[in-house]
Amino acid sequence: MHATDVMTTRFMTLKPGNTITEAVNRFQAASREQGKNVFGLMVTDDTDRLVGMLSMYDILLFVQPRHADIWPELEDEEQATAFEALLGRVKSIRVGDLMTTDVVTITPQTHLLAIVDIMIKRHIRRLPVVRDQEVVGIVYISDLFYHLLQQYLG
Amino acid sequence: MPVARTRSVLSGMRVKEAMRRQIISLDGTTSIWTGIGRLIKYKADALLVMDAEGKPAGIVSKTDMAAAYYAGMPSETPLEAVMAGPLHTCFIDDGLEHALDMMSSNGIHQLFVVGADAGRFEGMLNYGDILGLVFQICRNCRKNRLRQSAAGVGDYHSSESTISEVMTSAVLTCKVTDDLYRVMDSLSACRMSAILVTDESSRPAGVISKTNLIVAWHRGVSPDAEAAAVMSKPVISCDRNETINQALARMLLGDMGRIFVHAGDPGTIVGVLSLSDAANHRSGTCRACVSSRMVN
């Protein structure tokens, strides 16, 4: 019952210098490759060391207007024009500007129940698996969920 | 003899109606680099710094961070080394006009909001929050220009206050080839939050705000770099004859702290309108509101 039992070893990553447009495309490509929605990707440097994580939430947080409460009062056309202008600002932002750098990681030998514990207590849905500073996989909460409940509940 | 009292669209309104609950706080030992990341992600203007006991200890604004960048401090420096104090606070039930006066007289851009428990902050208030409320009030006002024209009543556009009445005419500029030290020198000397970057023909090429400066620091850009490397473009500007409300809408919806002003030709900038200029005008859209200031 270790991380190796459930971790995905084929994964896509981002670089800190990627634009947010590139990141969005990467999310889509990763979702297609994994056959499920991928909500977060690992960010690695030029030597493939993990330097952060970027989630859809991080991007949405940045895209959300500061004065979101006044938007519902606008006409649809006004909203469309204003949102397009707002997204123009996103073009100058890079993955490294928005990524979370305080990343919790596990090793291939971390016990599955310890992983459950981390995910529950830290509200984390995906955990990078790192061995000797090298990223070797990622554990998604959905894979862990089905592995534990389908295998052991029968 | 009766004494004239002034009223504005904000009269009678309380801090709690405009403030935002979200406060971005970090431990004082956290690095400036991490702090900048939070400011970028949450589009915040300042961080609340907590001491070892989890109590508010000071504030770090983008201005403080830009000053540390200029001074050549490493981005790993802890926030507590650059934080400022004391913290300026207002009460949740204070009038918005009082809060605005406090910000204006202290030359600050945000206040922390205290409720019944003096040791706990309920939220923050800045110029944008106040103007967001003004915008909503004016949009719903029965004298609103859009409502009036829809009802076929008069030309209310001509009765509205225009940008030229409120804007600042002095525009701070630098060249695309100037280095960031020079940019920061100019911003600091004039206590401005952004500078217009012009090309070799003196036409607007971009804008550098304090956000651009801290993003540059976060990315490891040297202050020796040219302005062109970090500026935002294009320069967003509006005509000086447009109404304040039109400019306000563009600033609030676009999350901009200021908008540049031209006199018909966007290639020649003649002024700048900031959120603080608009907030201190204390009226939303029109002279109907301005005239209602005088009562008794």
**Span between N and C termini of chain B?**
11 Å
CATH superfamily of the largest domain in chain B: CBS-domain
Average pLDDT rating of chain B: 86
Taking all residues together, what is the mean pLDDT of chain A?
90
Per the principal axes of the C-alpha atoms, what is the gross shape of chain A? globular
Can you tell me the CATH class of chain A? Alpha Beta
By CATH reckoning, the class of the largest domain in chain B would read Alpha Beta
Element order, helices and strands of chain A?
HEHEEHHHHEEH
Strand order of the largest sheet of chain B: 2-3-4
Return the CATH topology of chain A.
CBS-domain
Total beta strand runs of chain B: 14
How large is the share of residues in beta strands of chain B? Answer: 15-25%
Strand order in the sheet with the most strands of chain A: 1-2-3
Major sheet of chain A: size, sense and barrel closure? 3 strands, mixed
Integer tally of domains of chain B: 2
Q: pLDDT under 50 segments of chain A (min length 5)?
A: none
The SS-based structural class of chain B is alpha/beta
Number of helices of chain B: 12
**Number of distinct helices of chain A:** 7
What is the number of strand segments of chain A? 5
Shape estimate of chain B: flat
Question: What descriptive keywords fit this protein?
Answer:
heterodimer; A: 154 residues; alpha+beta; CBS-domain; three-stranded mixed sheet; two-stranded antiparallel sheet; 7 helices; 45% helix; 17% strand; globular; B: 296 residues; alpha/beta; 2 domains; 34% helix; 20% strand; flat
Describe the model.
- The complex is a heterodimer of chains A (154) and B (296).
- By secondary structure, chain A is an alpha+beta fold.
- In chain A, 45% of the residues lie in helices and 17% in strands.
- In chain A, strands 1-2-3 form a three-stranded mixed beta sheet.
- Chain A is globular, with a radius of gyration of 18 Å.
- The model of chain A has no long low-confidence stretch (mean pLDDT 90).
- Chain B has two domains: 122 residues, CBS-domain (Roll), CATH 3.10.580.10; 135 residues, CBS-domain (Roll), CATH 3.10.580.10.
- Chain B has twelve helices and 14 strands.
- In chain B, the strands form five sheets. Chain B has a three-stranded mixed beta sheet with strand order 2-3-4. In chain B, strands 5-6-7 form a three-stranded mixed beta sheet.
- The longest helix of chain B has 14 residues.
- Chain B is flat, with a radius of gyration of 20 Å.
